[in-house]
Amino acid sequence: MGRVTVRRPVRKITADGERRRPDSLAAEEPLELRVGGKALAVTMRTPGHDVELAHGFLLSEGVLGSREDVSTARYCDGVDDQGRNTYNVLDVTLAPGVAPPETGVERNFYTTSSCGVCGKAALDAVKLRSRFSPAESTFAVKTDVLVRLPDRLREQQKVFASTGGLHAAALFDPDGELLVVREDVGRHNAVDKVLGWALQSGRIPAPGHGLLVSGRTSFELVQKAAMAGIGLLAAVSAPSSLAVELAEENGMTLIGFLRGDSLNLYTGDHRVLT
Catalytic center at which residues (predicted)? Predict the structure, then answer.
């Protein structure tokens, strides 16, 4: 497995002078995802929880609906100049009867750590329709529970504490318990890892849970939550206009600027109890 952090020397300059010291950086490496031996996408990610990442990615693309849809997931090929496995190529074998990804799912180019929909083969493949309706979610949570979530998330961001360079995502219940926390250099990768965990745990669809993200909310994060049947998405930072439109269209609750003792409620007021 690749390294989660990398130590590099740094020259630190302050008003009091300068000194050299080692610094911890968040690792970023490519992961090539294959389905049935056929290359599907390459994403830049922080190594770790790659099988979850693959499950979450395929769920959010509409390929998977349950853990039984995957037969095997294994590392293959991908060796360095010394013949050691880089663990940067993962091949997923779908269960018999599960349809392979449609052409529109394929990426013409690699996806960066900041883009979850870059390189889609067709624009109409960007906007997907979930097999699980998030509008049917009866999940509701009190505001005093919501405002405590960012601090709880930060407490579990172990790699962020040492590098300051990772996004995080978490699945939580109505009492504010964080069921799973995942970190990654990419926002969409962190969410995919969380959704992959939920899929492998038999928790998809997840109408009884909320999704929390440490950064801003873009279109693809709302889409991923919708594809998992999640009715509430909360973010520490701002949403984009298209994220709000998509959340409203899917009957979801979208929360932004969840900081301190306040929050902005953009859609789905009925799931937030004051």
Answer: 115
